[in-house]
Amino acid sequence: MPRTLTIPACALAVLALTGCGTTTGERSGTGALMGAAGGALIGSLSADAGAGALIGAGVGALGGYLVDQHAKGNID
Predict the structure, then answer these.
(1) Which residue has the higher pLDDT, 29 or 5?
(2) Are 27 and 64 in contact (CB under 8 A)?
């Protein structure tokens, strides 16, 4: 897959799977794991997979938390 398609494909996969789970902890945890994997992949394209994984984990955990809160009706 060309690099121009790899990044959007990974981002789409992470966003699609962030909401997996039924509790806040599960959703945040799965978001963090998938975000770390996606971030490591994207970071490896710029020769810094570790930083990409850390950033991805943080963004994934936040995304999972926000999806959980939206599903519970706490945010619109």
Answers:
(1) 29
(2) yes
